[in-house]
Amino acid sequence: MHPHTAEFESVEKHAVARKSTFVSVALNLVLMTLQVAIGVFAHSQALIADGVHSLADLISDFIVLVANRASAEKPDADHNYGHRRYETVASLFLGALLVTVGVGMLWRAGTRLANMDNIPAVHVSALVVAVLVLVSKEALFRYMLRQAERVRSAMLIANAWHARSDAASSLVVAVGIVGSLFGVRLLDPIAAAIVGFLVARMGWVFGWDALQDLSDRALDETATDDIRKLLTTTAGVRDVHELRTRKMGDLALVDAHILVDPLISVSEGHYIAESARMRVMTDKRVLDALIHVDPENDALAHPPARLPTRVAVAALVDAELAKHGLRAAGLNVHYLSTGLDVDITLPADAMADREHDAELIGRIDLAQIKSRLGARNVTVQRQLAPATARASRHA
After folding, report:
1. How far apart, in whole angstroms, are the C-alpha atoms of residue 312 and residue 115?
2. Long-range contact list for 73-82, CB < 8 A, 24+ apart?
């Protein structure tokens, strides 16, 4: 994903979150006032419980607004990967709030059911408000879900389904009020208890989901397979292993090891890794990716622990070449699980009489170098010069 595209999408997401949440705030403020006022007047505990639910919605809307603002902050010294997890923290608080409110509703409904004789008759105005709330909350849900899916925000989707749970609870309230109006007064507190259960259950689902994300939950199997395919189809990548992902708000961080030809240059390996990273970043679910280059699958094989360092290899090679008045123009050391490979390159002007290159190179005791280094292979060659063939030898 191009950085400018990612930045634009982030700005759009926060703008949509702000707008849809303000719409929710305005509607919930009006509905809460109606529900509580008419609930008290009409003696409907279910409607009052639904009003408390709307109050919880108002609080959750403010939590969303604060989290939306905080998550938009750019990375800093304390949060190198940005602040996107503030959205997840907000979802966790929202879940805890809903569980608390739901349990409170259940307690209140249970208390009223224990005192059946004190349940007064419900006024018809309670039904009018309950139907109005039902229609309003369903319309709010559809609007918020459409906006949330457009910008792919898990926090906004959670808030939208919260509005749908409100619509469902309002339907239960309406049924309870209808039953109470027909003389079955028991239905009103039962409706209040059902609303409390729905609220608590929704809070548990949101909270648990947010807790999993805060515990570095990975992307699902389908998304992970998509990322693996992007990596394996990158030119120069032989295989992919140790692919790991972890959620960061609505996006994810990716770590992966790619297998490349062990004898290519460091710069080529880096180029392949950057190419692989840019391909992964085209997936809109990815926030950032860290690609590690391996010459072999280090989950299965490692170079022997006691192989000589490059400094030791260079010292031995220089000493052997000096015996013949030569010096190395280049030295490549390959550390593989099967052993050490050493490639020695002599400068093009290393020998005055180029006709005897092969003869002079043949005098270098490669067997001695190989034995002392414990190497698997040792090769020596001379740099190409204009109109000059390259002489080489290996052991």
Report:
1. 89
2. 81/248, 81/253, 81/287, 81/288, 82/248, 82/287
CATH fold group of domain 310-394: Alpha-Beta Plaits (3.30.70)
Read off the pLDDT of residues 131-150 as tens digits, 9 standing for 90 and up.
Answer: 898 888 888 888 888 888 77
Separation of alpha carbons 123 and 58, rounded Å: 26
Q: Measured between alpha carbons, how far is residue 353 from residues 192, 263, 361 in Å?
A: 102, 31, 12
Q: Is 334 exposed, middle or buried (0-12, 13-18, 19+ CB in 10 A)?
A: middle
Domain with CATH 3.30.70.1350 in the chain: 221-294
Match domain 221-294 to its CATH number in 3.30.70.1350, 3.40.50.300, 3.40.1280.10, 3.30.240.20.
3.30.70.1350
Q: Are 317 and 331 in contact (CB under 8 A)?
A: yes
Q: What is the pLDDT of residues 294-345, one digit of tens each?
A: 998 877 878 887 889 999 999 999 998 888 888 888 899 998 888 899 999 8
Q: Where in the chain is the domain with CATH 1.20.1510.10?
A: 3-214
Contact present, 328 and 315 (Cβ < 8 Å): no
Cross-strand pairs, 117: none
What are the pLDDT digits (tens) for 153-175?
Answer: 766 777 677 677 777 777 877 88
Q: How many CB atoms lie within 10 A of CB 384?
A: 10
Question: What fold does the segment set 3-214 form as a domain?
Answer: Alpha-lytic protease prodomain-like (1.20.1510)
277: its two tokens: 């990273």
DSSP state string for 76-144: -SS-TT-STHHHHHHHHHHHHHHHHHHHHHHHHHHHHHTTGGG-PPPPTHHHHHHHHHHHHHHHHHHHH
At 322, is the secondary structure helix, strand, or coil? Answer: helix
